[in-house]
């Protein structure tokens, strides 16, 4: 019988680097957002509120990160998972701290969730683009031609999909 397990968790250094990249993308999009990063257990690790970011979005960004951390899937995938199941569609959104719209992403290393990021304050599409930009800190590799290219979050080189997906 094992007496303990080793659990990987995001470092503050990585969290801050991801927040820096997210803020760069938000400025590029000309939108002020709140950005929250949680550890693998959904506890807040780092947070940043840009000047002018909506006050209500502080909590939403944290709940997006919590949801992505707790379930290991992007918050933007939730609706498609539950839309054809009336009991889930009308029941699960009432779960405290659960968010079922885009802007929350698990942060994975080697297929293991080490944390999550939640972005709120822009449109759903802007929040998602900012979150994906933050994830790119982790998933940049150098191609055979020496170019920096993104790989998917699951680490598969063959699929060619975006950096967040279930492959």
TrEMBL record:
Transmembrane segments: none annotated. It comes from the Bacteria. It holds the Pfam family HbpS-like. Residues 12-39 form a coiled coil. Keywords: Coiled coil. This is Heme-binding protein. It comes from Geobacillus proteiniphilus.
């Amino acid at each position: 019988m094992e007496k303990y397990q080793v659990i990987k968790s995001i470092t503050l250094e990585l969290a801050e680097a991801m927040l820096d990249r997210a803020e760069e993308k938000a400025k590029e999009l000309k939108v002020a957002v709140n950005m929250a990063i949680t550890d693998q257990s959904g506890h807040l690790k780092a947070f940043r509120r840009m000047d002018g970011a909506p006050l209500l979005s502080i909590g939403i960004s944290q709940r997006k990160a919590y949801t992505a951390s707790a379930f290991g899937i992007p918050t933007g995938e939730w609706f498609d998972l539950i839309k054809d199941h009336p009991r889930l569609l009308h029941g699960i959104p009432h779960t405290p701290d659960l968010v079922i719209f885009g802007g929350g992403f698990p942060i994975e290393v080697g297929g293991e969730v080490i944390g999550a990021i939640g972005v709120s304050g822009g449109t759903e599409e802007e929040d998602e683009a900012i979150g994906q930009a933050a994830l790119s800190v982790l998933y940049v590799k150098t191609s055979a031609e020496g170019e920096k290219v993104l790989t998917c979050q699951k680490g598969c080189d063959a699929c060619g999909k975006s950096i967040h997906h279930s492959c």
